[in-house]
Amino acid sequence: MYSNEDIESAVNAEIISSQTAYALRKHIESRQKTSAVDEEHFRLITGFNDIFVVIASLLLLVSTEIIVGKLHDSLGLLASATMAWGLSEYFIRKRCMALPAIILSLAFVISVGLSSVYLVQNPSIRLFSISLLMSLAAWCHWRRFHVPITVAAGTGAVACGFLYTLWLEFPEIQNNIPLFSMLIFLIGLLVFSLAMYWDALDIQRQTRRTDVAFWLHLLAAPLLVHPVFIMIGVTSGELGLLQMVLVLIIYILIALLSLKIDRRALMVSALGYVLYVFTSLLNKTAVEFTKSFAVVAFVLGAALLLLSVFWHQSRRWVLCLLPSSVARYIPPCKRKWP
Prior knowledge:
The protein is an all-alpha fold and 338 residues long.
């Protein structure tokens, strides 16, 4: 299986022409009855060898951390990070393997960050030092290997460090869950804006920029969705008709936004809350939990599958409502068949 990035690499190496690459993409789209722009592709695995390499790499990284960690815990983590970087030089730069790239980049970033746990004695700044080191490690790894998930890892580290700093500096936040939820939501908006920036750089979704945007959308989704449902009282345990209506309205708005930007992460992130609210309300009507969950899951699953089938037609309808000044920054809808 060849990705868009592989095809672009062949074009840049003058192995195939840009016209041939365009014709190849159109041929694949016609066979699959879909448009590559609309399918939200991202590279995860290129073959079972990816899984084989990941298992072997994890065994090597964990054993390195344990053996060297006998001298000092931080040395074990730094040795594991060094090993992850060395493996990245071969499996990412030379072999361009998808799944090992994700695992090795995360292993490097996490190992570097956690090494400060044993070096920083002050508990009040320990988490901040972890997030700082993780963000620096993510930046260095990105500059060298350009693994898309690394941008999301570094962004997440910065977000955690910022939230933790606010938590320490302003004690009133600690006892004010709605305020803290609002802060998380605002950070989610910033991450979402960053994801949209990367999306706008490649609206045809043919380069690794779209993979960067994909991981950023996955990071932004829970930061946006969870605070909203917390603020409307979904997690309070006192669910009623008002919460049900609000959850339904919010999920419809999330679905419309997902259609506009052609990203499904927000809908997936909110799915658990919808299941929980409607299942809890059915339980109040003397229906046992198993049956109520099955009914809600059946209806919701059928609705989502129906949306998946008519995703492109729905997108075309939603995009017609957008002004051209906005529509040019989001992926177009090219599919014309049912």
